[in-house]
Structure to design on (192 residues):
């Protein structure tokens, strides 16, 4: 056996022994490629999950902001509700006051109705008295008018009599003045 043959046999033996190893290595390399492809897919999925997680975190942040806004709105609504309750309490008090005032007004209206009825009765009595007084006043007026006519006639008569007497008085006054003048002249003449 020559060295070449020996090398050939060894090579064949090595090939036979190494062939299962090569096959295993090929399978391992296939598995590694499959694992690398799976890893690449997983890395892509992880990247997609990271992006999805980032989107979810953004959505969670938006939800948290929305929740904060909702909590603020809820707080304002609760304040409004408290204010409305306080206002309702005041309104209830006002309603009670109005009811009490209304009861007083009803009492006042009843009193006014009774007073009005009394006034109507008094007005009827006053109207009756005014009618009686009017009748009596008419009668007195006629009597006074008759008396006035009589007095006017007497005054007219006295006035006419006074006119006549006034003319006589005027005449006598004129005569007295003439006599006074004559007496004055006579006195004056006698003194000279």
């Amino acid at each position: 056996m020559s060295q070449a043959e020996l090398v050939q046999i060894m090579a064949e033996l090595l090939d036979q022994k190494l062939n299962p190893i090569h096959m295993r290595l090929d399978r391992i390399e296939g598995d590694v490629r499959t694992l690398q492809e799976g890893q690449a897919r997983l890395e892509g999925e992880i990247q997609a999950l990271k992006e999805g997680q980032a989107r979810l975190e953004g959505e969670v942040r938006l939800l948290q902001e929305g929740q904060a806004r909702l909590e603020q709105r809820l707080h304002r609504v609760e304040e409004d509700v408290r204010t409305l309750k306080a206002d309702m309490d005041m309104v209830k008090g006002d309603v009670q006051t109005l009811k009490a005032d209304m009861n007083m007004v009803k009492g006042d209206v009843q009193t006014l109705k009774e007073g009005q009825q009394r006034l109507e009765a008094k007005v009827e009595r006053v109207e009756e008295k005014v009618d009686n007084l009017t009748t009596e006043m008419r009668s007195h007026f006629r009597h006074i008018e008759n008396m006035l006519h009589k007095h006017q006639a007497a005054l007219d008569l006295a006035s006419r009599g006074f006119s006549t007497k006034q003319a006589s008085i005027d005449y006598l006054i004129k005569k007295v003045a003439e006599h006074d003048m004559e007496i004055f002249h006579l006195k004056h003449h006698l003194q000279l």
Summary: The mean pLDDT is 88. Helices lie at 3-191. The chain has one helix and no strands. The radius of gyration is 73 Å.
